[in-house]
């Protein structure tokens, strides 16, 4: 902090979004505090694309498995394999991954604080204050105070920073996701398990409105599902999926769940001194639930926006984070939102969706846009072919 005891930026939340923001700001020479509530491993399938590994310098030792195919499984158990061409999908364990990012931010110069965010307030002189309670403080301890020029709220879905400061943040729609971490088989006792393949199950029995997954993680596996339907038993569904695949025999290490936001907020900043990033801003790709890469990118864009605001005093700079993100990814999010709405709404449609995945154009475009986060420009005709194939399926002209 400066000689008046004021940080340039306080980042609340040390997940992929917050740790990336704090790292970037510290490297730019800004004074930054990174506040995180320790003690809970973020429930997450942990799949990241090569673009994330590249853009955020993720070292090899954090990648616990390299995935070279996805198997799409339909309600009638039809299987379509989609081999990854030119690369792999990386799997990370979030306890190790998130801690690595926080340590990296601290090594770059961020002041790391462990405890719970309480409130954003303003002193009589107008300076922004973040109050927080250190981990392990006895009950009744008065919150500590951090004076700052700007706050980045990266405290995940159901963000407290968002609820307190940004209109609409209290009602981001969410899917609730749940998974079980189990010990991977040592031999080939589970016939259909492949340690280099992610299985994605589209079946109303396991999820009425999302999908279920089996993601290898080296010596562990994440088996999970998601749904926005209140009353649907996610735990029961994962139990059934494990029984159907023989994975009920494997030792369970952890059971955990968390909300996944479904829609980016219309506004990520409060027009004064706060900008949100990652799940706190509602930024997870619809249909896939992919959030790690997008959270890290949001963290980076929020850091740039905060740095500009601190340098110029112009709070309009805070809005650039959302503008830049939506310019790069708004179209893909929109398409994925429509896909989720349409293809995940009945087993008949899920069956057709898995069938479409047999198409080589669909496979290539899906992987290229997942891996590199860019809509493919090299072969515009592939988009046209997929568009017409999609329409044919949509209106039932194609044979299912
Ligand atoms: C079951 C499940 C499976 C998923 N699988 C995948 C996947 O395979 N691939 C993928 O890309 N995405 C996946 N996601 C989504 C992904 O996990 C999130 O989008 C991503 O973690 C968002 O990062 P974040 O930094 O915005 O938030 P988070 O990772 O949620 O981090 C928020 C941080 O804020 C801290 N915090 C919260 N409240 C406070 C407080 N009051 N005070 C201080 N600190 C606080 C928390 O300790 C945490 O460290 C999955 C999500 C779920 C729930």
Automatic annotation (TrEMBL):
Q: Where is the FAD/NAD(P)-binding domain?
A: 7-74
BP GO terms, sorted: chlorophyll biosynthetic process; photosynthesis
Carries keyword Cytoplasm? no
A GO MF label:
oxidoreductase activity, acting on the CH-CH group of donors, NAD or NADP as acceptor
Has UniProt tagged this entry with the keyword NADP? yes
Report keywords, A-Z.
NADP, Oxidoreductase
Q: Which PANTHER family match?
A: GERANYLGERANYL DIPHOSPHATE REDUCTASE, GERANYLGERANYL DIPHOSPHATE REDUCTASE, CHLOROPLASTIC
By what name is this protein known? Geranylgeranyl reductase
């Amino acid at each position: 902090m400066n000689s008046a005891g004021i940080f340039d930026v306080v980042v609340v939340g040390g997940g992929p979004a917050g740790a990336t923001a704090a790292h970037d700001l510290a490297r730019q020479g800004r004074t930054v505090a990174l506040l995180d509530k320790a003690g809970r491993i973020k429930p997450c399938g942990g799949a990241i694309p090569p673009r994330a590994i590249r853009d955020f310098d993720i070292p090899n030792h954090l990648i616990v498995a390299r995935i070279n195919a996805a198997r799409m499984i339909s309600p009638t158990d039809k299987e379509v394999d989609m081999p990854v061409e030119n690369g792999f999908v990386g799997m990370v364990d979030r306890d190790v991954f998130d801690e690595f990012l926080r340590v990296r931010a601290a090594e770059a110069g961020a002041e790391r604080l462990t405890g719970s965010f309480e409130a954003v307030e303003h002193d009589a002189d107008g300076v922004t204050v973040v109050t927080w309670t250190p981990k392990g403080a006895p009950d009744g301890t008065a919150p500590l105070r951090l004076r700052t020029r700007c706050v980045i709220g990266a405290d995940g879905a159901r963000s407290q920073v968002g609820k307190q400061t940004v209109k609409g943040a209290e009602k981001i729609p969410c899917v609730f996701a749940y998974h079980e971490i189990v010990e991977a088989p040592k031999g080939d006792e589970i016939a259909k398990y492949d340690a280099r393949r992610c299985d994605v199950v589209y079946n109303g029995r396991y999820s009425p409105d999302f999908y279920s997954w089996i993601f290898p993680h080296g010596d562990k596996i994440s088996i999970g599902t998601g749904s926005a339907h209140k009353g649907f038993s996610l735990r029961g569904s994962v139990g059934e999926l494990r029984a159907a695949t023989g994975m009920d025999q494997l030792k369970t290490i952890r059971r955990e769940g968390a909300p996944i936001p479904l829609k980016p907020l219309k506004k990520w900043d409060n027009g004064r001194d706060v900008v949100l990033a990652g799940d706190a801003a509602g930024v997870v790709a619809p249909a896939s639930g992919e959030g790690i890469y997008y959270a890290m990118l949001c963290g980076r864009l929020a850091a740039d926006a905060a740095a500009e605001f601190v340098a110029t005093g112009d709070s309009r700079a805070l809005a650039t984070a959302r503008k830049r993100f939506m310019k790069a990814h708004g179209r893909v999010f929109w398409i994925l939102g429509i896909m989720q709405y349409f293809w995940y709404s009945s087993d008949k449609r899920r069956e057709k969706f898995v069938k479409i995945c047999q198409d080589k154009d669909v496979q290539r475009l899906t992987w290229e846009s997942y891996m590199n986060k860019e809509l493919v420009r090299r072969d515009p005709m592939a988009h046209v072919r997929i568009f017409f194939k999609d329409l044919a399926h949509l209106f039932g002209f194609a044979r299912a």
